[in-house]
Amino acid sequence: MKTFDVILLPGLRLREDGQPQPEMRLRARKAFELWEKGLAPKIVACGGDAAGAGVSEAGMLRRMLIDMGVPDEAIITEDASFITAENFRNAARLVGKGARAALCTSDYHMTRAKLLCRREGFQVKGFKARTPLSAYKLKLRLLEALGILDALCGWQSEGAQRPAPVERFKNYLTRTLRDKGK
To answer: In terms of domains, do 62 and 103 share one?
Structure first.
């Protein structure tokens, strides 16, 4: 029944203590469910150590997936990326452009993630990990809208930069979310 080559699983910044956020667990659980149904033989766990916690997001995802029952050889680890665009750019280098991918990410993150996957040459279908509605999630949606603007304007391309006012606003939102998300 394998209809995809891989399941793409982008990470999420770990907490300062190196533990995963609940949302990362939801993404990993969804990826496990897709793998267990036989949608793809491999899961590509993505994400570097963006939090400086001493463990990469991909490494944490690997541990969670193994604990759920995914064999080690079914997991490909991409641990060099720090932003979503890099997750998929690096994953494409690992599995090849044109791969058929089941993308497993948070519901609010799906639009931009699919756009970035397609930009890297993946044939992608999204499978949403539902996140509970909260004031925090509403702020994440606002930050995600900024990410979509980034992607559409090409500001997430290698070597590109956001205009300074947009960067300041994004940094403000990120600080606010980080402070409220603890």
So the answer is: yes
Residue 105 and residue 11 in contact, taking contact as beta carbons nearer than 8 Å: no
126 and 140 inside one domain: no
Nearest to 92, CA basis, from 74, 80, 110: 80
* Number of residues that this document lists for the chain: 182
Tell the residue number behind the tokens 């050889």, with chain if given: 73
Residue, of 87 and 18, whose pLDDT is higher: 87
Residue 12 CB coordination number (10 Å): 23
- What confidence tens digit (pLDDT) does each residue in 128-143 have? 999 877 666 667 777 7
Note the helical H segments in the chain: 22-36, 57-68, 84-95, 110-119, 135-153, 164-180
- Residues 32 and 173: their CA atoms lie apart, in Å, by 31
Helix (H) or strand (E) holding 163: none
Given a cut of 90, whether residue 118 has pLDDT beyond it is yes
The band of 167, judged by pLDDT with boundaries at 50, 70 and 90, is: confident
Instruction: Render 54-104 in DSSP notation, one character per residue.
Output: SS-HHHHHHHHHHHHT--GGGEEEE-S-SSHHHHHHHHHHHH-TT-EEEEE
Domain that holds residue 17: 6-132
